Amino acid sequence: MENVKAFKNPLIWRTQLFINNEYVNSVSGKTFEIENPSTEDIICRVQEGDKADVDKAVSAARRAMERNSPWRTMDSADRGKIIHKMADIIERDAAYIASLETMDNGKPFASALGDVGFSVAILRYYAGLCDKIEGKTLAMPNGKFGYTRYEPVGVVAAITPWNFPFLMSTLKVSQILAAGNAFVLKPPEQTPLTSLLYGDVAIEAGVPPGIVNIICGFGPTAGAALTAHKDVNKVAFTGSREVGHIIQKASGESNLKRVTLELGGKSALIIGKSADLEKVVPLAQDGCYVNMGQTCCALTRTFVHEDVYDEFVRLSAEYANESRAKIGDPFQDGIKYGPQVDKVQFDKILDLIESGKKEGAKLECGGGRLNEKGYFLEPTVFSNVTDNMRIAQEEIFGPVQQIMKFSSLEEAIDRANDSDYGLVAAVFTNDLSEALYLSQELEAGQIWVNDFMLMAPNTPFGGYKQSGIGRELGFDGLLSYLEIKTVLVKL
Amino acid sequence: MTEVPLPIKNLQVKYKQLFINNEFVDAVGGKTFEVLNPSNGEVICKVAEAEEADVNKAVDAACEAFKRDSAWRTMDASDRGLLLFRLADLLEKHRVELATLESMDNGKPYHIAYMADLALCIKCIRYYAGWADKNHGKTLPVDGNFFCYTRHEPVGVCAQIIPWNFPLLMACWKLGPALSMGNTVVLKSAEQTPLSILFTASLIKQAGFPPGVVNILSGFGPSCGAPLAKHPKCDKVAFTGSTEVGTLIQGYAAGNMKRVTLECGGKSPVIVLKDADLDKAVDICHLALFFNHGQCCIAGSRIYVEAPIYEKFVAKAKQKAASLKLGDPLDKSTDQGPQVDLDQFKKILELIESGKKEGACLETGGKQFGEKGYYIEPTVFSDVKDHMRIAKEEIFGPVMQIFKFETLDEVIDRANESMYGLGAGVITDDHTRAIKISNALRAGTVYVNCYNVFDTRAPFGGFKMSGIGRELGEYALENYTEVKTVYNAM
């Protein structure tokens, strides 16, 4: 996606719910506000869905998944063609989608465009996968005939977060459709605008009615209605750990719908004494501040070997101060960081920064608000952080870097593993043997060596411990959207 | 059925040269040969004829394109997939022209080239496009402190030699998996039918494949195919054609131990049980033999009918065969066109004579049709005995053999009694029995109550002398992959 220019004032194209291939108002007629975090202006109002709308959507999805429906009887290669067409459409409209994302979420336009590009790659990967979901024939005793079938799990509830709105929705949509399911998507209430475009994309690509449904609304109302619904076969959630617990509980209290969760992280980065600081300092901070820190896999506990600790801290503060000039209007060229997504996040981050100061960490730079309008924060660095501090344990989700000292590799491993989270662990080293050893010992779903945000459509992604349940992306990711049926025949 | 667009009248052949390094070039020796239209024996055009010097040029180009840091070797696997998707789109865009070329060159009716051949070509390329970034190696739990994993690497420079019966489709079956897995290719078309793949070469260039990745040569077996199969810089040879030439190719490959896959001939049996719906059985068997004028490696050329329904079957089969309309392949009412060339034409007629001489009962057909072109009347023999030449040798023409059988055990043994083992059919209403029979038949593809289904997802290939290895499906990827194990001491 080269030479793509932003629309600085993109048209708000869709604000209604999407059910059965139609955009409609909510049953109650209620709406809610969408705010531009860079300006604090209200962009528009969006229809607010609740239980009644969820019921309509789930019924539509259920009908579309009936035994002889067009979607159920379609050749798998034709399903792949439809998903491919969705990728073509999104690629064609990338400038608009990215512009809308920037206005709604606050991320710089170049980042939003990157999100759209990755979304297209994911769709194309899964488009090519549709007709390659293969069962097995099994060696059975006594002349019996046995085989497995991989069938769609059914109606999926997909609940997506506000940090990478379009990308997170795409991740769900592509896997759900590749496996032959129908879905009801509840996009984030902070940033629903780009996800709403999936209705138009579905219609243009030729998806039959009822397969794609989008209900905007809030967690406790629309989200809860979805997770309690008796006719939903699976819920796929990406969001906070707290809500992850709620969702798994809701499954247990309703119909045991299958649950996959992609939750938060407090991911450790280990930097050894032989690290080339010139290279490693920017990488470590970029890996922490990515998406204004609003990333489940941000590297937010930076363990630095004592021999290079002082220099690392000094250079990190310097690099953070250099970044200040690149924070501002996300539509402007050359901007690296935009605002935080809303006031709730903004206040929470400032509160955690205060706790860091109170609990004795050293504030090297930043720590407060930037600019008078918009939820902009100063790039913040804490040193002398100890493992028991709130800033060392709780997910901050802002541009706040925690630097800790360690003496031995074994100590770093144990401290890195001492967390309720386990999403990513990163290692910056020139010693491949060290990297391989660490990748074996660290308790995290992703191990990144010498870079951050390493991800592709074919790499399974998910968390150990309370960072989540299950994996997405790749072949393995698709399994959670399928149900295995074994057929045994006595001949 | 969707309306088939009209073929192009008076189509001019645009691409007549060899395709090497993304360029259309004359042969080094300047030679050309004639391409004939089998419906009237007339010359369509002349195309460049590749000999050993051209083979060497093409292989050098493919080697260069396979070098360690080349554009093709360093391309993301998903981008390889994108190039193949683009090629599929271009095939679809030029579907009418390609189907017209195929019909003119091979003799098959245009509407079948459009609806069957081209549809399968496009699906095949699309299917393999999707595999490009999904051929996984593994990480392995070996003993000791090692990080151990496998890489699935491309085999290298692949020689591909294809036949004339489904010219473009056979090219797609070869190119799809080879390119998807990152190999480079030198493909020799059949001398009878070089035109559609030459046009496709222009689309390969248009799609954006780097120079040298695909090279296309037109030429003859002994002067072009043999040097290619023998070439020491080719890492693999894939051949589809007669069993006779297949065994030669296997010998040629031994020189540098290049990997070999073969798709060869067949004499596939179809077993019709007495409980089968008779009309459906006749329809299936008719399609099994007469599809593509009998020019199908998997043709159901031995039809075993259970004694109680034998007489009725023969009567209906004869009637159905006699109802086929022969004519101009570009005419939409034509069912059957000519055989591909004079050699085939003569061979088929000779085998028909042997059938008559050896005492089979000629029910219908049995001779040339019309005065121009290589047309043969749809022919049905009944009362065929296993020792007859028409019972054992691959005819590759519109000649059906019907045998009688008494018991299931007997017919399974007779069906398996062949040096071939490509396909087999079972027609019965008893599905449990059908599964048991399928388990017993020594054939690469068994069709139950159907025939000639060629889905790109399902592997295809032969037992015994019908071939080595499988094409199509995920299985084909193995033919174009070399596995490397890496042990890393921790």
Describe the structure concisely for a colleague.
The complex is a heterodimer of chains A (491) and B (490). Chain A is α/β, with parallel strands linked by helices.
Question: Topology of this structure?
Answer:
The complex is a heterodimer of chains A (491) and B (490).
Chain A: E1 17-19, E2 22-24, E3 31-36, E4 41-47, H1 51-64, H2 70-73, H3 76-92, H4 94-105, H5 109-127, E5 137-138, E6 145-152, E7 155-159, H6 165-178, E8 182-186, H7 198-205, E9 212-214, H8 219-228, E10 234-238, H9 241-253, E11 258-262, E12 267-271, H10 277-289, E13 299-305, H11 306-323, H12 343-358, E14 362-365, E15 369-370, E16 376-377, E17 380-383, H13 390-393, E18 400-406, H14 409-417, E19 424-428, H15 432-441, E20 446-449, E21 468-469, H16 474-478, E22 482-489
Parallel strand pairs in A: 7-8, 7-10, 8-9, 10-11, 12-13, 12-19, 13-18, 17-18, 19-20
Antiparallel strand pairs in A: 1-2, 3-4, 5-6, 6-22, 11-21, 14-17, 15-16
Chain B: E1 18-20, E2 23-25, E3 32-37, E4 42-48, H1 52-65, H2 71-74, H3 77-93, H4 95-106, H5 110-131, E5 139-140, E6 146-154, E7 157-161, H6 167-180, E8 184-188, H7 195-207, E9 214-217, H8 221-230, E10 236-240, H9 243-253, E11 259-263, E12 269-272, H10 278-290, E13 302-306, H11 310-322, H12 342-357, E14 361-364, E15 379-382, H13 389-392, E16 399-405, H14 408-416, E17 423-427, H15 431-440, E18 445-448, E19 467-468, H16 475-479, E20 481-489
Parallel strand pairs in B: 7-8, 7-10, 8-9, 10-11, 12-13, 12-17, 13-16, 15-16, 17-18
Antiparallel strand pairs in B: 1-2, 3-4, 5-6, 6-20, 11-19, 14-15
Helix pairs in contact in B: 1-8, 3-5, 3-7, 4-5, 4-7, 5-6, 10-11
